[in-house]
Design brief:
Elements (H helix, E strand, L loop, with lengths): L2 E6 L9 H17 L3 E6 L12 E4 L4 H12 L3 E3 L2 H6 L2 H11 L6 E5 L7 E3 L5 E3 L4 E5 L10 E4 L2 H13 L4 E6 L5 E7 L4 E6 L5 E2 L3 E2 L6 H13 L10 E7 L5 E7 L8 H16 L2
Parallel strand pairs: 1-2, 1-3, 3-4
Antiparallel strand pairs: 5-10, 6-7, 8-9, 8-10, 11-12, 11-15, 13-14, 15-16
Helix pairs in contact: 1-7
Length: about 290
């Protein structure tokens, strides 16, 4: 009998989303147990080098300590989903560079040192030295936002410099700066190994992790944006078995990636996603 360990994300990496993030992993574990696996769960803070290695680790971990343990397990033959290399390769700065290398459409992006808040002209991830344009979005580098102020929309150089200074004071050494894009935002979820893909207008979520419930306002334009995402995003390739993200559909019809999550909550399609994730894992390991 395969031993399968589910590892919940630490609350600090799941602001406003703890219950939703836990719900999808619990749903997957229920299905793995029904398929004949011996399942157990713990939180990434509880994962140590003394934790017995399972056959399969299905994790949402983000901390370097947890990822170090999972990396050792991988080398020892454990099937880790998502792989540690995959998780590390899509943290914000690495993802921006990957998009540039793989020609995945994305906003113009600069990766900046927060100590250089006065530097307004620097290289983009595509290698061009350009002025930072306003408005733009300034995001802490790393895997995800941990509080609302980790992602800031700034409208001019003064706000930009204040944002970087705040990051620097908080010990955040690097920031990812993205040009602001006009157009509807679409959220998508994907499990490529089970041919699962789902998307919806951001407004359809009905909540914001930092704000709470939000009104729903779906228009024909947003439905057309979803059609574009359904056509374009599945052609992009990421080194992950499970992921989701946000994309902007521009007036030119091009879908541009603005964020990627190595293990989203699948809140709007949890039942279908849990089935797809369990199927993908069984296809990988057998039972």
């Amino acid at each position: 009998m395969k031993k399968v360990l589910g590892i919940f994300r630490a609350a600090c990496f799941s602001p406003g989303m703890v219950e939703r993030d836990e719900a999808i992993l619990r749903a997957v574990m229920v299905r793995m147990e029904a398929l004949g696996c011996e399942v157990s769960c713990l939180r990434e803070e509880q994962l140590t080098s003394d934790t017995p290695m399972p056959h399969v680790a299905i994790h949402m971990a983000r901390s370097s300590e947890a990822l170090d343990v999972l990396s050792r397990w991988q080398r020892a033959g454990c099937c880790v989903i998502n792989s540690v290399e995959g998780v590390n390769s899509v943290e914000r700065a690495a993802l921006a560079r990957m998009c540039a290398l793989q020609d995945i459409p994305a906003p113009k992006t600069w990766i900046v040192n927060t100590a250089d808040s006065c530097l307004l002209r620097t290289s983009t991830t595509e290698g061009e030295c350009e002025e930072i344009t306003f408005p733009c979005w300034v995001k802490r580098s790393g895997a995800c936002a941990q509080e609302a102020s980790d992602v800031c929309r700034v409208t001019d150089a003064e706000e930009y410099q204040a944002c970087l200074s705040q990051f620097y004071t908080r010990g955040i050494c690097e920031a990812v700066v993205m040009e602001h894009l006009e157009g509807p935002c679409v959220k998508f979820y994907s499990v490529p190994g089970a041919a699962f893909f789902y998307c919806l207008p951001m407004e359809n979520l009905g909540y914001d992790k930092f704000v709470g419930n939000t009104p729903v306002d779906v228009t024909d334009e947003k439905n057309r944006a979803c059609d574009a995402v359904n056509r374009q995003v599945p052609t992009w390739h990421f080194p992950l078995d499970i992921y989701g993200g946000d994309a902007i559909v521009g007036p030119d019809g091009v879908v541009r990636l603005i964020d990627l999550n190595d293990w989203p909550s699948f809140s709007s399609c949890r039942t279908e996603a849990a089935e797809a994730i369990a199927l993908m894992i069984i296809n990988k390991i057998g039972v």
